[in-house]
Design brief:
Low-confidence stretches of chain C: none
Number of domains of chain B: 2
Order of helices and strands of chain B: EHEEEEEHHEEEHHHHHEEHHH
Strand content of chain B: 15-25%
Number of helices of chain B: 11
Radius of gyration of chain C: 18 Å
Helix content of chain C: 10-25%
Oligomer: heterotrimer
Shape of chain C: globular
Number of strands of chain C: 15
Low-confidence stretches of chain B: none
Strand order of the largest sheet of chain C: 10-9-8-7-11-12-15
CATH architecture of the largest domain in chain C: 3-Layer(aba) Sandwich
Number of helices of chain C: 8
Distance between the termini of chain C: 43 Å
Helix content of chain B: 25-40%
Structural class of chain C: alpha/beta
Mean pLDDT of chain C: 94
CATH topology of the largest domain in chain C: Rossmann fold
Largest sheet of chain B: 7 strands, mixed
Distance between the termini of chain B: 44 Å
Chains: A alpha/beta (304), B alpha/beta (333), C alpha/beta (286)
Strand order of the largest sheet of chain B: 1-9-8-7-6-2-3
CATH class of the largest domain in chain C: Alpha Beta
Chain lengths: 304, 333, 286
């Protein structure tokens, strides 16, 4: 990891030296043991704080939409900032998705792909018991963002076969069992919105749950509102979610959101052939249609 | 005040005594850590936890509650229906937080009847800390792992026994009423209690807050850089024992409905946004400054108290690992 | 039925007696409200400068300055602007005479008129922040009260003639001999025969004396930002400049933590503040 970290720092140094970049978003060591946290590099002096280790869990793409938000009164000759992002496979896919959705201009972003060997994070996250690697990383089918602008070489994790075994096992349960499990899990929610804020795809200026005219959902942690919030947020992710587990890691209550985000990722792949963000050229599943799209949800809703 | 002891093997007797007083809520272990829950005689209470995930404020100031109902006849107050409750094995930091919230919800001019109704019906048995987490810093803020104020009884867990000390008159009455389940405290137990407190204090690193320096730092650029990686979620505020911001919200079905109160967070972007579109705290740095200043400058100004009990929940739960201790150091440097 | 005394969160029921449309754009309305219960009416003793939380059940609550004089009997008045994105203000503007609303209050502090007896008063208002100043002026012009104060100068500006509030009262004030009234608009039009000019500019032209005078000034943050420096130059001490701040509110009673400007709460420590109190607070908005 150490030489990879060095290569990363050299690359960032080069970008600043050649004046190709205004900000680089990466990781620094956290204040808690076994933690790394997002870090903004704005000058060459900051570069020595950049780290690369197995605790670089956060999805850094989440900072991009706000940074590229055009000011309401732009100064004469305003140009968007040039931002570099240190990306794992997952955040790279997120960045590609944001570029696709016009939340980040392609010419203003430089992605620096790291050879990700899987992340370990705080106890909150559900992790693989043997290796302590996050479940999201154990199941990850794209550890390196191959479509990045710069790729740092090094040994990375082997892509897992995306079997979605846990999801399929859940789907095999009866609707009553599934509903019960869903309600039990979602009842832990305190509506702190950490999941939404951590997610790169949740960049709406005013989230549907915060809209008041009309008001769709109240901010209360009462079951009906909580369910609508999560179902709504999940379905807004359909065809866009990269299964990075940023929401899972951010949730202070340890809610197993992955059970639901993965279901949507699975459907996006199997029903619509869409795995978002790999090349950046994929048309988002919910923004197009094909003549042979599955209609079983209309014609045979009971069929599995 | 009166001190008594109880062998750990007799905990059931104490639980039975508490259950006679009302609903008993105590920490129980789950796969996500210890949480407060209603217990029965059969429950296994968790005693060896640093602190429960959620703060105690939720017992008096829930995430949501109905404030009033309205119909064709006007708006009517909703009664909380608060029941007599015993809160058992609460950490001193959480107990302190309630004393702070008392100053907000029950002041000379306006008393919050919802908060007050629960407060009046609650009896608190605190549990002194023996092993604070690395993120705890209560001692530095004038709190302490065995600080008694605010509780009715303070409990200390030793290797195979508990020591209980009455703190309030209600606590005194409880111990007297149930004196048959307790035994006399042994001198070595009192020594162990004192040592436990001293050891716990030693474990916690010092954390200084220079309020004077804090009040001088108004540079928006400094605050924006502190808040650079903040996600503007509400994890820190919702888990903070002394954060109390809320919103009132109407729900309507035809001609009827209710007004509810929900937790809110100054860290949310929409918090101060006005209908005109103007937002006095549009920048993350402004919101971060508000949170820090409220706790460490405005509260001292208004209540002579820093609104922080050093529980460390904000540090443990921030998705971007923005550490309050580092923030304070940066902005008072 | 709970009254406003027993639970500070429960509004007193009021009936909408009359609705006056104040401006050409029809998004400013004055609501004249009457208490349903005599007890509530008796308990609602207020002074100019205070506000109340106006409730439309189902929509929510909104803090609005009281526009009627404390000596007006049988009703209280509020002037409310409807914002397209405002849930409560829109709901209020959809109400008709006879409909029910709720009022919680009076809340906040007031202009310290008792302490200002004997002083000359300069009253400056901009836009629809003029409401509590209108309450103050109506009160001061009451026969029993007028003699307690020295000269009264009013300077009121709106964006255009169509946006001026309380037009009939303005006309009456201009005819009176016991006060000096300057009305101005930012932008003139064919209907307007009066003064044209931004409030801070007109203030410098008119140059009221600061001798034994206090200034009450209310307006949007941008207006305050440019009006206070000329006032200081004219010799008004920061302690003698009184203004009214506005922030979004939920509870109005100092508990929900939303409306603070620095360490002071607009609902509880304000909304009336001396400029000296708020001058050094970074987030004072001007």
């Amino acid at each position: 990891m150490q030489t990879i970290e060095k290569k990363m720092r050299e690359t960032v140094k080069g970008l600043f030296k050649d004046n190709k970049i205004d900000i680089v978003i990466g990781f620094q060591n956290g204040s808690l043991p076994k933690t790394a946290r997002p870090y903004f590099v704005r000058s060459q002096e900051d570069i020595e704080n950049l780290v690369w280790n197995e605790y670089c869990t956060a999805n850094l793409a989440t900072f991009l939409p706000k940074l590229f938000e055009r000011p309401s009164r732009p100064k004469e000759g305003y140009k968007p900032p040039r931002i570099g992002v240190i990306v794992k496979g997952c955040d790279g896919r997120s960045v590609a998705g944001l570029i696709k959705e016009n939340q980040a201009p392609k010419d203003s972003v430089i992605t620096i792909a790291m050879p990700c060997s899987g992340m370990k994070s705080s106890a909150k996250n559900k992790k693989d018991k043997k290796t302590e690697v996050n479940r999201a990383c154990v199941e990850c089918a794209s550890p390196v963002h191959e479509a990045a602008d710069i790729i740092i070489s090094g040994e990375s994790r082997k892509p897992a076969k995306a079997s979605y075994a846990r999801i399929k096992a859940f789907e095999a349960k009866s609707p009553e069992q599934r509903w019960k499990a869903f309600v039990e899990e979602i009842s832990k929610c305190i509506r702190c919105n950490a999941c939404r804020q951590a997610c790169p795809n949740c960049y709406c200026k005013v989230c549907f749950t915060d809209q008041r005219k009309p008001s769709w959902v109240s901010p209360a942690a009462q079951l009906s509102d909580t369910i609508v919030f999560h179902l709504g947020r999940m379905f807004h992710q359909a065809g866009r979610c990269v299964e990075c587990d940023a929401c899972v890691n951010a949730c202070p209550m340890g809610i197993d959101l992955r059970l639901f985000t993965q279901k949507l990722a699975l459907d996006s792949r199997d029903l619509f052939g869409c795995v978002p963000g790999i090349s950046g050229d994929e048309v988002p599943a919910m923004q197009t249609f094909k003549q042979d799209d599955s209609e079983c949800f209309i014609t045979d809703p009971e069929e599995k | 005040m009166t001190q008594v002891a109880l062998n750990s093997t007799n905990m059931k007797k104490l639980i039975a005594a508490m259950l006679k007083e009302g609903v008993v809520r105590a920490p129980v272990e789950t796969e996500d850590g210890a949480i407060f829950a209603a217990i029965t005689e059969k429950s296994a209470i968790a005693f060896d936890y640093a602190n429960v995930k959620l703060p105690l404020k939720r017992e008096f100031f829930p995430q949501r509650e109905t404030v009033s109902r309205f119909g064709v006849d006007g708006m009517v107050e909703e009664k909380t229906g608060a029941k007599k409750t015993v809160l058992f094995a609460v950490r001193p930091c959480d107990v302190q937080s309630i004393l702070y919230l008392d100053k907000v919800f029950i002041d000379d001019k306006y008393q919050d009847p919802y908060y007050q109704s629960r407060r009046d019906k609650t009896f608190i048995i605190a549990l002194a800390c023996s092993s604070p987490a690395s993120t705890c810093f209560c001692e530095s803020l004038g709190q302490g792992p065995a600080r008694k104020s605010g509780s009715d009884v303070m409990a200390y867990k030793l290797s195979d026994s508990f020591v209980f000390e009455a703190v309030s008159e209600k606590g005194e009455a409880f111990i007297k009423k149930n004196k048959s389940i307790f035994r006399a405290v042994m001198p070595k137990e009192l020594q162990a209690v004192a040592k436990q407190e001293a050891d716990a204090i030693k474990k916690m690193p010092r954390f200084e807050v220079n309020i004077g320096a804090l009040r001088q730092k108004n540079d928006p650029a400094l605050w924006n850089s502190v808040a650079e990686t903040c996600l503007s979620c509400g994890a820190c505020t919702f888990l903070c024992p002394t954060c109390h911001c809320f919103d009132l919200f109407d729900e309507k079905h035809g001609d009827e409905g209710r007004r509810i109160r929900v937790h809110d967070a100054c860290m949310f972007e929409q918090f101060t946004k006005e209908a005109s579109g103007h937002n006095p705290r549009a920048q993350k740095g402004d919101r971060m400054r508000q949170r820090i200043m409220h706790k460490f400058s405005y509260a001292p100004e208004n209540f002579r108290l820093m609104f922080c009990v050093g529980c460390g929940r904000c540090i443990v739960n921030c998705p971007s690992n923005i550490d309050l201790r580092e923030t304070i150091a940066k902005v008072t440097a | 039925m709970s009254t406003i005394q027993s639970n500070p969160y429960i509004p007193a029921p009021v009936t909408v007696d009359k609705v006056f449309v104040e401006n050409d754009a029809k998004d400013l309305k004055t609501f004249r409200l009457a208490f349903r219960n005599k007890n509530d009416e008796a308990a609602f003793k207020y002074k100019s400068g205070q506000f109340a939380m106006l409730s439309v059940p189902g929509a929510g609550e909104s803090p609005v300055g009281i526009a009627s004089s404390p000596l007006d009997k049988g009703y209280i008045e509020f002037t409310v602007k409807r914002y397209p994105t405002g849930v409560v203000t829109t709901a209020m503007h959809d109400l008709s005479e006879g409909d029910t609303m709720g009022v919680r209050g009076p809340l906040g502090n007031s202009f310290p008129l008792d302490e200002l007896k004997g002083k000359n008063l300069v009253i400056i208002g901009g836009g629809f922040a003029f409401t509590t100043l209108r309450s103050t002026i109506r009160y001061l012009l009451t026969d029993a009260v007028r003699g307690d104060y020295g000269s009264i100068t009013i300077l009121y500006g709106a964006r255009s003639a169509g946006e001026l509030l309380y037009k009939s009262e303005l006309e009456q004030w201009q005819k009176r001999g016991d006060l000096t009234t300057y009305i101005t608009v930012d932008k003139g039009d064919d209907s307007w025969k009066g003064r044209v000019g931004l409030v801070p500019i007109v203030l410098k032209e008119v140059a009221p004396s600061a001798a034994n005078a206090h200034c009450l000034v209310c307006g949007p943050p941008i207006m305050l930002k440019f009006t206070i420096p000329p006032l200081l130059e004219l010799g008004f001490a920061p302690e003698a400049i009184l203004t009214s701040l506005e922030r979004k509110m939920s509870c109005g009673i100092g508990k929900c933590g939303r409306c603070n400007v620095g360490g002071i709460y607009v609902c509880k420590d304000g909304p009336v503040f001396a400029y000296s109190q708020i001058r050094d607070i970074p987030e004072n908005g001007f």
